[in-house]
Please model this.
Amino acid sequence: METVAADIDLAALKHNMAVIRGMAPDSRIIAVVKANAYGHGSVECARAMDEFAYGYAVARLEEARELRNAGISKPVVMLGGCAAAGDLDDVAKLDLSVTVHSFEMLEELKAFCRANPGSGLRVWCQVNIGMQRLGFNEDEIVRAMDEIRSFPGFVHPVGMMAHLSCSDEAALREYHLKQLASFNRMSVFAEGALCLANSAGIIYYPDTHTEFVRPGIIQYGISPSSGKTGADFGLRPVMTLRTVVYAVRELRPGDAVGYGASWVADRPTRIAVLGAGYADGYPRSMPNGSPVYLNGTVVHTVGHVCMDMMFVDIGADLRVVPGDSAELWGPHIPVEKVAELIGTIPYELVTRPTKRVRYRYLPA
Ligand SMILES: *Cc1c(COP(=O)(O)O)cnc(C)c1O
Model:
């Protein structure tokens, strides 16, 4: 039996992809599978998404290599561009698309194309529309596009891509609209396709649905905006993080639980000791009272999360025996709610499960 398992529901993933297609019916989907498909397993998820995805997007060369090694042959775009000029060899060999986002990178690309005539790198031009991460600014776009067009070796069409930074937050609507206006002005100079919307753009702003959209978090059934869960958008959670009960203990009033004795029983009760800890990816910062689903009901954590174990108060009546399965997040405990309790976003939690967590894929 696995002590900690991440069950990945590929049927839920397909359901979510169908929902996304319904939200952006006129766009093609570049499925974002960076960071091991947000912790869900990039190869398995990419395969399950196959009928919906035009291609895939990753952040790092190694992530792209993993897809190619698994025999995935659809377009793969590296969102982050290339960290080192030396990476371009691999980009060409693996038949990846890159995003060019600076004049320095353009120089690297040119040098590569001169040294490898006909290598035919596929290039997306990335533009900065107000996040200051990567991309050409508005006053650079004409020169950048001129340079992109001016040398051989690129396979056309060259597309234009930008990233929205405020589309998840209603209060930031005005800034979002500024970003959209900036993209629309720059897109006049684009060659090829446009690609703009992330998950929140797909949900909230149909006017960001260009030829391509790049959903990430909603594919995995998770809300991109705070205060909501995936279910609010008809999505189903893909990951269930589970562990097992190691032991059940009776406590008397005054008994203190865990490191630092940070929780003390104020009544006779029982606790279950669970076999997951922060070294599995369940955050140590989870406060007393965090929800865990156990034997048909929601119970709450007590004491600090340990490296390999944690505690829940199960009261006097709940039937619990060692070996019972507990859900740390999943269909009964939305990961959005867990994240909110420690002031982070669900993106950070699902990318946390560590090497010793066993992944189990439930067939689509
Ligand atoms: C991560 C990422 C996405 C996907 O974002 P979500 O909020 O998960 O939909 C899209 N585009 C870029 C450039 C990204 O880095």
